[in-house]
Amino acid sequence: MSEIVLLEKIHPTAVAYFEQHGFDRIRQFPRALSGQELLDALGEADAVGIRSNTHLGAEVLQHLPRLRTIGCFCIGTNQVDLVAAAQAGIPVFNAPYSNTRSVAELVIAQAILLLRRIPEKNAKAHRGIWDKSALGAFETRNKTLGIIGYGNIGAQVGILAESVGMQVRYYDPESKLPLGNARPLPLQQVLEQADVVTLHVPGGPGTVNLMNRERLAMMKPNSVLINASRGGVVEIDALDAALRDGRLAGAALDVFPHEPRSEKEEFISPLRGHDNVILTPHIGGSTEEAQANIGQEVAEKLVRFLTAGTTRSAVNFPEIAHQAKEVVSRILNVHKNEPGVIARMNVEYASMGLNIVAQHLQTKGAIGYAITDVDEPVPPELMRKLCAAPAVIRCQLL
Ligand code: NAI
Question: What span, in angstroms and rounded, lies between the C-alpha atoms of 74 and 87?
Fold first, then answer.
């Protein structure tokens, strides 16, 4: 039975899932490891589960010939050398959508609080000021929510917003199926019509300073801006100016261009001190439920790979949709993506008199991955021949 090593206090839902599926060789370490300690911990591991603080670079991976798969129990995968892992035949999995609901709920809460001017009332009450004025405080009902980026989180925010009576408009450069009352519009029209604008775009060069001075100026007077996507998406000085001018009535930011690496580092931002701005320390997706979902989601992907070799949603590897192993033998073959590899492999099967009952092949960049099912035992000499072929990176009999 495969050995699974879990580092960095991964949520107990993961262990529960592994155990339910018959994996009982699980070793756990409460913190990230590095250097020789890491190599010692992973020497016998078939699968490793990490969070963001364990670094699995090319030099670590080359010392772990037994390791078959890596699970990042988080969203990001920067801590793993994905190319080196793929070249070693190791698929890497993560949990990109486990915290979608958590972010969406926070955004709706922020929209309600900002429209009611609660951040200012709260700040004033803390200073002993009893401001009961209804001026500028609005219900969400019949207000327009403008979503920039109608992906997983954006679409979920739209559904929740409709349930509190909002009209949903969105902009996305890709054509997306509108859910509920949501309607697509050009970016400028979303900004001009929305009482609340919320950003749910990916990071990267295409979205840096998406909300710059010009776009902030397109927003309806007294509207509010929410950003729980990536820090670079809003030009912070321009937002600061729009808030100081009173053009925008408020903002909520969960992500920033420069975020402290730990509690010990001070959070510096020109937005500190605005009573009408909600600042949160990148916790949009940080809930108990999201952690539990991550534990379950990544464990499920690892179990599927370990038991069936399937790789749906691997971040660095050819993806083969899940099908349980229901045959006597399943052969996993990771190889260089070059002509003739599968033809030569199938000649070997035929020469041994083995009948292929199903075969699935996918390629991604330099890597090809084939899963072959045969309904009889595969002799060790065939496995030796298959594994010795020059294009083969890794092969295994399940
Ligand atoms: P997703 O990939 O499902 O959706 C992103 C959408 O943005 C896609 O529909 C895409 O077509 C669209 N898009 C791309 N470029 C665009 C542009 N220039 N203008 C408008 N739309 C554009 O991503 P998901 O899962 O919805 O995540 C959205 C963002 O939320 C990501 O940046 C992610 O990193 C961030 N996030 C933040 C969290 C937090 O704790 N605050 C937690 C989880 C995700």
Answer: 23
State whether 211 and 313 are in the same domain.
no
Nearest to 224 by CA among 113, 322, 312: 113
- Asked if the model's pLDDT at residue 311 lies above 90, the reply is yes
Q: Which of 68, 101, 215, 230 is catalytic?
A: 230
- Reported as a single tens digit per residue, the pLDDT across 83-127 is 999 999 999 999 999 999 999 999 999 999 999 999 999 999 999
80 and 206, same domain (yes or no): no
Residue nearest to atom 39 of ligand 1 (CA): 284
Q: Is the distance from the beta carbon of residue 256 to the nearest atom of ligand 1 less than 6 Å?
A: no
Residues 80, 144, single domain; the answer is no
* One domain, residues 123 and 204: yes
Domain membership of residue 240 as a residue range:
100-279
Residue 110 to residue 225: CA distance in whole angstroms: 10
Q: Which of 119, 117, 115 is nearest to 142 (CA)?
A: 115
| Catalytic site includes residue 376 | no
Cα of 207 to ligand 1 centre, how many Å?
A: 10
Give 374-395 pLDDT, tens digit per residue: 999 998 988 998 899 999 999 9
Give the count of domains, the chain. Answer: 3
Global pTM value: 0.86
Q: What is the pLDDT of residue 262?
A: 86
DSSP element (H, E) containing 157: helix 152-163
Ligand 1 contact via 149 beta carbon (within 6 Å): yes
Same domain, 164 and 17: no
Query: Using a 6 Å cutoff on CB, does residue 202 contact ligand 1?
Result: yes
Residue spans of alpha helices (H) in 234-379:
236-244, 288-308, 341-351
